[in-house]
Amino acid sequence: MRVALMVTCVNDAMFPDTGKAVVRLLRRLGVDVEFPAAQTCCAQPMVNTGYLDEAVPVVRTFVDAFAGYDAVVTPSGSCAGSARHQHGLVARRSGDAGLAAAVAETSPKVYELTEFLVDVLGVVDVGAYFPHTVTYHPTCHSLRMLGVGDRPRRLLENVRGLRLVDLPQAEQCCGFGGTFAVKNADTSVAMGADKARHVRGTGAEVLVAGDNSCLMHVGGVLSRQQAGVRVVHLAEVLASTEEGVGGPSGHPQVERAREEQR
């Protein structure tokens, strides 16, 4: 099976450890994952803002970059949702039959990470170790557009040392929403504050989600509140082992935070 990593723009620019974690995790599970250097944006920002014509060359670059792979794995429900649901809309609007055919070939092969682990590889125990109290936020696109369901929780429940606590009103949006956070800043901040309040109420050390854009938003609120709650992408939790990155403590970011607080 030829598998490609779609790292996403936000991870490439701001959270490279997440992409590295996906590679470590998949290789540990016996998957020889590749990184196509020609990949760029999934086109979601353009589509969400109404620039569908401008999204055409971006979608064309996407299908060219990932042509020939059996699966395209991404640590983002948001970007997976864009590839699976928005690319077809863009291609049909363009009137380019060749592009529409390429999208129809590529889009069904795009998987959010937990979908690939559970549905394709058939695993829920990936051999991870993360000895921390964790609460999980199901991001909107993974929950509503992709329907990942309980796959992330099943994976977290099988992480050794991890204590998973329920997040009240978990299915409520965190308020980020890409350009929504810019165009409707006051509403976005209020929604983020609600989410942060529920996170604090769990007593968890770590907030986990499958999209770094959402973690960036809620994590910013938690940081300004000096809540002492860290945000970590699900891929980084699943990639953590006793022997691997982060050592026995499970994750370097969490341990650095603990040292700072001592």
UniProtKB/TrEMBL annotation:
Pfam families: CCG (PF02754). Residues 242-262 are annotated as: Disordered. Residues 253-262 have a biased composition (Basic and acidic residues). Residues 3-80, 134-218 form the Cysteine-rich domain. InterPro entries: Cys_rich_dom. It comes from the Bacteria. This is (Fe-S)-binding protein. It comes from Nocardioides deserti.
